[in-house]
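Final report, results section. Input specification for complex C-07:
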Amino acid sequence: QQQVKQSPQSLIVQKGGISIINCAYENTAFDYFPWYQQFPGKGPALLIAIRPDVSEKKEGRFTISFNKSAKQFSLHIMDSQPGDSATYFCAANQYQGGKLIFGQGTELSVKP
Amino acid sequence: NAGVTQTPKFQVLKTGQSMTLQCAQDMNHEYMSWYRQDPGMGLRLIHYSVGAGITDQGEVPNGYNVSRSTTEDFPLRLLSAAPSQTSVYFCASADRNTEAFFGQGTRLTVV
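Structure output:
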């Protein structure tokens, strides 16, 4: 079964807008929640990550919001730019270096 | 610093052929793993290793074998390729307190 569910599958945003991608997980033992960014023909690269002891983490234009009781977390991209156009994956695991369980991915397109 | 290196980048196999996808990391990481990426499915874990001589199965291990004789290398073997194994394969490495670093991927087509 899919332990991490991600939505939407695709997203189109105008330049300067806010992109929001949502994920939900099932396993309450998960304690590490990274977001990966992938450009065509490349491997995924870590964008930002959070642990469940905080409700929000911000790095530049990227923010993770975390709701432990609802078992949900989301990625917000503020002031979205065409260079942000990529596929984004949420993931979860019990510890940082271990086996990552990925969501299905969101293909983001930012229109100029 | 090369990071995680995967070879080959592209491969076409005939059904029933065998091959090995190579993965090497130069960061002295304990953990290495193989994922396959299919449209709409995200990345799914095939096999995993927590150190030399130790491997474990992931979500989709059938049809694949691995071994880890050194810290640096973690090859993935397809014993008898099937069209269902057409995919993009990613190798990753990590330590207990680091992010997972991914290679550039191997695009495999089985005809």
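Chain B is about 0% helix and 50% strand. The longest strand of chain B covers residues 42-51. This concludes the modelling results for the funded period.
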